[in-house]
Amino acid sequence: MTETAAPTSAIVVEEQETRPGFIGTNIPRKEDRRLVQGEGVFFDDVKRHGMGFVHFVRAPYAHAKIVSVDVSRALELKDVYGTLTGDEVAILTDPFFEMSVPPGSEIKDYALAVGKTRFVGEPVVAVVAATRELARDAAELVEVEYEPLEPLVDARAALEPEAPILHEDAGSNLVWEGVFDWGDWEGCVAEADRIVRIKELHFDRFSSTPLECSGCLVEFNRGTGQWTMYCNHQMPGIGAIWMAPALRVGTDKLRFVTQDIGGAFGNKICLHPYFVACCLLARKLNRPVQWTEWRTDQHTANAHGNERWFEDTEVAVKADGTLLGFKTSAIDDCGAFPRYEPLGCIIWAQVTPGCYRWQNIHVDFTQVATNKSPVSPNRGYSRMQHLWFTERVIDIVAHELGLDPVEVRKRNYVKEDEFPWTTPNGCIYDSGDYARCLDIALELIGYDGIEERREDAENRGKLLGVGIGSTLDSGTNNFGQSMLLNPDLQFSGNNEVATVKLDIFGEVVVTLGTVPQGQGHETTAAQVVADALGITPDEVTVRPGHDTYWNSHAGFSGTYASQFAVTGLGAVKGAVDQLAGEIRTIAAAVLGGVPEEAVVLEGGFAKLRANPEAAIPFMGIGAIVNANNAVLPEEVRDVTLNCRYVYVPPFEVPDTERKYGNLTLTYATQIHVCVLEVDPETGAYEIVDYAAVDDCGNRIHPQIVEGQVHGATAQALGAATHETFTYDEQGNLLTPNFYDYHVPHALDMPPIKTGYIESPSPFTSLGAKGMGEGGGAGIHAVCAALQDALRPVGNPIVHESCNPPHRVWELISNPEESRGRVAVESR
Amino acid sequence: MLLASVEYACPGSVDEALSLLAANPNGRALAGGQTLVNVLKARIAAAELLVDLNGIPGFREIRETDGALELGPMVTYTQLARSEEVLRSRPILAEVAAQIADVQVRNRGTLGGNLCSSDPTNHLPPVLVAVGATMTIAGASGTRTVPAEEFFLGVYLTAVGPGELLTGISVPRRQAGDGFASVTIGADGTCIANAAASVNGGVRVALGCVSAKPVLLEVPSADEESVRSAVAGAQLDPPSDIHAPAAYRRQLAGVLAARALRQASGAA
Amino acid sequence: MSAPVAQKTISVEVNGTTYERDVEARRLLVHFLRDDLDLTGTHVGCDTGNCGACSVIVDGTLLKSCMMLAIQADGASIETVEGLGTDGELSSLQQAFSEHHALQCGYCTPGMLMSAKALLDENPEPTEGEIRRAIQGNICRCTGYVNIVEAISAAAEAST
Predict the structure, then answer these.
(1) Which of B 74-113 lie inside 8 A of C, CB atoms?
(2) Considering only alpha carbons, which residue of chain A is nearest residue C34?
(3) Which one of B53, B103, B190 would you mutate to disrupt binding with C, by most C Cβ within 10 Å of its Cβ?
(4) Which of A35, A261, A752 lies nearest to residue C146, judging by beta carbons?
(5) For A268, which of A260, B74, B221, C36 is 20 to 30 Å away at the CA?
(6) Residue C2 is assigned to a structural domain of this protein
(7) Do C16 and C75 belong to one domain?
(8) What is the C-alpha end-to-end distance of chain B, expressed in Å?
(9) Is residue A293 within 8 Å of A270, Cβ to Cβ?
(10) Domain boundary among C29, C51, C83
(11) Average of per-residue pLDDT values in chain A
């Protein structure tokens, strides 16, 4: 294991797993059998006697003072069990802790709106009744008087002197601001042949919108003061850190239980306000309460991805296309409450130079609050926005300087023999071969023949474009990066837990600290355990889901940030190696006091290497240790066959002065190429060819890896073509459901060609890298392809991340508008 | 997602349905439910009584007569898309019905429901206007027939008044070609703009999504220039929304009208 | 004359078992299946009839059970995901979904399987385009549909 190794000095390279084993093969997923039969257990499938259903009364105004709340008519309705108001919440709980420095840290965030509403859909009152329908009926009887205030919708105006202030306690809409200055920006300007200026680029709001919305069933145990939440929270460790102080209890009073989760993608991290309201209701009403979020609720008031503006960008370039550095001002819109923010103000720095060798980077970063739904981590969290920016910059620079975007990329990519590569801000890219990935992707779409296809499209009245998205999927966070935002935060490193035990009848049982949502953790954990114990994955039971009372839970437990293959499986590997050792210890003692090394594990038996006839089945070992231990010699009686391992990645606390240090452990790569055809009369376009090439080191289960690539691509293509959370000037969300927020269906998706290479990570026990988020490669590739396609019609600049047909038509019909955003200065 | 309290009745005849609606001013006819049930889930509109039309005999019938295709109001999109009679007598209806929403919605959603909801983004209203369909409406005082261009009155508003029912749709059998073109939100999604054209005796082009109801243009001849200038002359004032600013819809109206007409002329 | 009712005892056959229950007229079929009959395999993923997670087959017709009232199903025969396998054996479609990794979180899967079943019942040898059209009303946020299309195609091939 690597837990003692510092990444910069002594990199410990684990001996490669011997293959063939189950690792690296496509075994059937253990999860599938129940899921294809409708026998999964999602939170909304859990029922309890006498449970009440929660319905939230939600704010109709983006910004308003709450003048009065009257629940009396709701309470008069038969079979209404009770209500909860903001006033009660303010008395019974403390505000959730904030991670920012002043003024952002002064923001008061509660389970329900207290005094004011700050976004449409914000929960104001909760009502509980005997049926779902009745709870909604009662909610309609709650009378809330509002005094509307001026809403703030545009993040760029948030710091203007006349802007309405959301949080009077903070006195400003500023959540966080800071300057990141690495290398020598002024120096590289002096060295540059060209400075390319880009006035404004905008990354739209969207989210992964998991098909299962959020929710929980909460039971309160009056005798112990403990709450059990059957739920779909994807990061219980952080959830408990938020909830426990707010509820004024210790974290052990909060038990999170999940089994199957219908997708999460980061969007199920910030559920604590809803869960706290449900906890208070379960205690107040002395009955289990159940809350199911509906789609419209999820869209209006749960988890949006970060919206970001990049203003006044300058790029320093040599005439041959060598990129020297860039400077930009980023304005990030986190919505009405920061919650997981301002972490997004640093997470992007995991991939500061993108895939490139840029050395001089200057970013002024500002995050502000607006009267929109709060944001939450969203697949590709914060890096996606930044990678979109860097990829946009590459293509704009290439086109403006008349260079080939493929050549500019290859000239500036970190080269295969340069790994591990240290970025200007101290991140260590572990391994990879970006140029090779790009070549494979180009070959998959037949790049050699692209000019003929362009001509063919032109003959059909279409404009063909080809675009590249180069991304890094940085995984396994060093939470020490939070200290670059707020040096007083006491977070650093990372951890994850697994237990593996051998039970009395020889059952091998694994519990995970992770919270799977479709990533196949039961399957891949079983592969690792099977290989280590010499059995088959079918003989390994991996408990589905997560339970904070399993003792396989640590502060950072959860499933997020592309890390399971490293942290989750690292913990499993550590635990099963311990168990294998213990099995050998017992076998060695029982088989005649031979040394442990003389024992091998094979086919469910511990055998003597020299004499395989001398063997004891795992069942025998399990039975002896668990129920017949007096037969054992004294010196092995401390063996429990119940092994717990905490995986701790080899991180250091970053340098807060220089904002420097390694922020993640692994860097998977996805390079995508998109070919599309635009109808110049309508702006509608069709993706006619698409390739995605992935490199996540050693692949534990190739089919699962490929599935993640497909899914990340689909989400990115949705975000590139249609998905935006658009607000009107009053702060009303105009895309609150799947009618207006169009996610890709089967006819929208082009066939996806996939390729891969494996550049094993030198920093992880299995040579694997976390993957799954994908960095939004599809968004970048579509934008680049549009930019390429539209060159013959005025060469407009694609400056939005989301480009539905009407935006494309606007680019075509008025190219001068976007052309005005770009200028090239020769020096 | 959760409906307000409502009563339900499933009448076995048109007369019974009419008297139920007459007795309950806040009653609503429930056809396929693919729009109405969603409206009720959102509690945007209230209904005290749902009069389910699924039990009325003959409402799902498709018949060919000498000159016309007679369609019951509860004919589903799936029926329209597959019916031999439709494919023979007015295939554009089948072609367009197959583009609406998805299999599940097509299985349940009905022609009458599509027309009576009079959502400006619906596919079928401009088609029925272009092909010169007529609608039969029944009420307490008997039945009347309304041409399609007079049927649609505005957003969610048709000639079917309170206490009335749409009981039949009559479409002339085709003599020449029809066409339809659209730009949608995603493949086969909701229309951002659409246009239907017919060259069956005169050139009729109907534009959807650009006004509260389909805009019928009588075009002097079936060439692109004529139709473009007819669209330009229509002084369209389309709505703006997140899917399309007005100027974009205006642009699409011209493009799609020309494309629909091209299809109609080509098939003639 | 069918008198208006706010509540009714309905009789429904689901996967071969007949159930009689009192329902309010306003109860959606999907909530009847999930909450009243405890058949929780059928899921809810939206509130506007777009996602298809609640797809079931009623009297041979594939539909979304969030856009039908339970009271309208009185006397109907309904097939849900729980009825796809026989005696604990997976159907060839279920098997193909697993083999081709056509599910990740599994939330859309029950509805997707019902749409696929409806397709293959009617068209045993669909083209890729026909498969995509058949599942257009079912949203999946995990797979990009690639492996779902493959699995349905494989199931079709296996049974012809």
Answers:
(1) 101-105, 107-108
(2) A45
(3) B103
(4) A752
(5) C36
(6) no
(7) yes
(8) 47
(9) no
(10) C83
(11) 95
From A186-190, A589-593, B94-98, B167-171, the region with the lowest mean pLDDT: A589-593
Do C67 and C100 share a domain, yes or no? no
Residue ranges in B42-165 assigned as alpha helix (H): 77-82, 84-89, 91-97, 103-108, 111-117, 124-130, 148-151
Does C15 reside within a domain?
Answer: yes
CATH match of B7-55 with 3.30.43.10:
yes
Query: Which residue segment(s) compose the domain that C97 sits in?
Result: 92-158
Q: Which residue has the tokens 């009955």?
A: A287
| CA-CA-CA-CA torsion sign (A387, A389, A392, A398) | negative
- Cβ–Cβ gap A703/C101 under 8 Å: yes
Question: Are residues C29 and C75 located together in one domain of the fold?
Answer: yes
Specify the pLDDT at position C159.
Answer: 84
Is B9 in the C-facing interface, judged by CB distances under 8 Å? yes
Choose among B2, B42, B183: nearest Cβ to A682: B183
Q: Where are the beta strands (DSSP E) in A49-193?
A: 52-58, 64-70, 80-85, 116-117, 123-129, 143-148, 174-182
CA distance B118 to chain C (A): 18
Whether the upstream peptide bond of residue A7 has omega within 30° of 0, thus cis, is no
Domain formed by B178-267, architecture: 2-Layer Sandwich (3.30)
List residues of chain B with CB under 8 Å from any CB of chain A. 1-5, 42-43, 102, 183, 185-190, 192, 241-245, 248, 251-252, 255-256
Locate B203 and state its tokens. Answer: 């050139």
Helix, strand, or coil (residue A706): helix
- What is the C-alpha to C-alpha distance for residues A457 and A453, in angstroms, rounded to an integer? 6
Are C71 and B38 in contact (CB < 8 Å)?
no
**Residue C1 falls inside a structural domain:** no
Could you tell me the domains of chain A? 43-149+213-261+269-301 (3.90.1170.50), 182-207+303-480+654-814 (3.30.365.10), 495-647 (3.30.365.10)
Asked if B149 and B167 count as a contact pair (C-beta separation under 8 A), the reply is no
pLDDT in tens, A348-389: 999 999 999 999 999 999 999 999 999 999 999 999 999 999
Q: Are C47 and C70 part of one and the same domain?
A: yes
Find the CB nearest C69 among B8, B24, B105: B8
Is residue A197 a contact partner of residue A825, using CB atoms and an 8 Å limit? yes
Domain positions in chain B: 7-55, 62-172, 178-267
Could you please state the CATH topology (level 3) that the domain comprising B62-172 is classified under. 3.30.465
Which tens digit of pLDDT belongs to each residue from A250-261? 999 999 999 999
Q: Do C144 and A28 touch (CB under 8 A)?
A: no
Residue B268: pLDDT band (50, 70, 90) is very low
Q: What are A609-664's pLDDT values in tens digits?
A: 999 999 999 999 999 999 999 999 999 999 999 999 999 999 999 999 999 999 99
pTM of the model: 0.96
Q: Which pLDDT score, from 0 to 100, does residue A593 have?
A: 86
CB contact under 8 A, B188 and A735: no
> Which residue of chain B comes nearest to C46, CA vs CA?
B1
For tokens 């914060």, what's the residue?
A382
Q: Nearest CB to B104: which of C8, C27, C62?
A: C62
Check whether residue C79 and residue C11 sit in a common domain: yes
CATH number at residue C102: 1.10.150.120
C28 domain-assigned = yes
CATH code where residue C61 lies: 3.10.20.30
C68 and C96 fall within a common domain: no
pLDDT digits (tens, 9 = 90+) for A753-776: 999 999 999 999 899 999 999 889
Do residue C13 and residue C78 come from a single domain? yes
Kindly list the partner chains of chain B, i.e. chains with 3 or more CB atom pairs below 8 Å: A, C
Say how many domains are in chain C.
2
- Among the partner-chain residues B8, B187, B188, the one whose CB lies closest to the CB of C5 is B8
As given in the structure block, the two tokens for residue A422 are: 């240290």
Do C145 and A707 lie within an 8 Å CB cutoff? no
Name the percent of chain A in helix, strand, coil, to the closest 5. Answer: 30, 25, 45
Residues C55 and C118 in one domain: no
pLDDT, tens digit, for every residue of A479-538?
999 999 999 998 999 999 999 999 999 999 999 999 999 999 999 999 999 999 999 999
